[in-house]
Write a structure and sequence with these properties.
This protein is α/β, with parallel strands linked by helices. The protein has a single domain, classed as 2-enoyl-CoA Hydratase, Chain A, domain 1 (Alpha-Beta Complex). Helices cover 46% and strands 15% of the residues. It has nine helices and nine strands. Strands 1-2-3-4-6-9 form a six-stranded mixed β-sheet, sandwiched between helices. Strands 5-7-8 form a three-stranded mixed β-sheet. Helix 1 links the parallel strand 2 and strand 3. Helix 2 runs antiparallel to helix 8 and helix 4 packs across helix 8.
């Protein structure tokens, strides 16, 4: 797990993705993250988790150029089979979102129970700008935190919003100066860790439990739609446009 660093102090675990500066995820990164979280839950010392990343951005999602690693491998679980393990994790989790959480990176941030951001943080569900369907369970998690109508707007437009707007929408729970972002996430995790550990696990299971079946169904649908649309000219154009830093010229084919 050379791309995942784990430390525990005073019952708070810090789990850091080390794929900077943009922290694109692939099968190996997500598997390492899920394995690290499972180990923390089994060992029993950690009572809350701070999820964070090195470098400029929290997570820029998947790199469709393939330069950052593969998201598909013959005989391996699908990316979303691993992603559901993050939602199943029993410890309360706080995400410290520096820089950008884009696409699947936004989905990863929403796998946490709470999010701390700064005014300079950026959030976007940019899938439509790539010409394909959103994923990583955003069908369920995004409307849950911002409401159905705001979720539709963000998904249809792919609009990027800053931390201040994210706080107004409920997409992040605490807004602090960028220099204090990780420290604030730790303070929040320490406050959670001071509660009864059996109680917080039980509360999380109660609050998250009904969502898990919805997430599994949603990700199965998202996966099918992504597979279908990734075979289109529009998807190829969307990826090329992002790579070339230009506006895409979609044709509906």
């Amino acid at each position: 797990m050379h791309d995942i660093a784990v430390g525990v102090a005073d019952h708070v675990a810090t789990v850091e993705i080390r794929r900077g500066p943009n922290n694109f995820f692939d099968l190996d990164v997500l598997t390492g993250l899920a394995d690290a979280l499972d180990a923390l839950a089994a060992e029993g010392d950690a009572r809350a988790v701070v999820l964070c990343s090195e470098g400029k951005n929290f997570c820029a999602g998947a790199d469709f150029s393939g330069a950052a690693g593969t998201t598909r491998r013959d005989g391996a679980p699908h990316l979303y089979d691993i992603a559901i393990r993050l939602f199943e994790h029993p410890l309360p989790m706080v995400a410290a979102v520096q820089g950008s959480a884009i696409g699947g990176g936004l989905g990863l941030a929403l796998a946490a129970d709470l999010r701390v951001a700064s005014p300079e943080s950026r959030f976007a569900a940019n899938f439509s700008l790539l010409g394909f369907h959103h994923g990583f369970g955003l069908t369920v998690t995004l409307p849950l935190v911002v409401g159905h109508q705001r979720a539709i707007e963000l998904l249809y437009t792919g609009r990027r919003i800053d931390g201040t707007t994210a706080r107004e929408l409920g997409l992040c729970d605490h807004l602090v100066d960028g220099a204090d972002l990780r420290a604030r996430a730790h303070v929040l995790a320490e406050e959670i860790a001071a509660s009864g550990p059996l109680a917080t696990r039980s509360i999380k299971q109660t609050m998250r439990g009904p969502l898990l079946d919805q997430l599994r169904d949603a990700m199965a649908h998202e996966r099918a739609e992504q597979d279908r649309l990734q075979r289109t000219d529009d998807f190829r154009e969307g990826v090329a446009a992002v790579r070339d830093r230009r506006i895409a010229k979609f044709t509906g084919r």
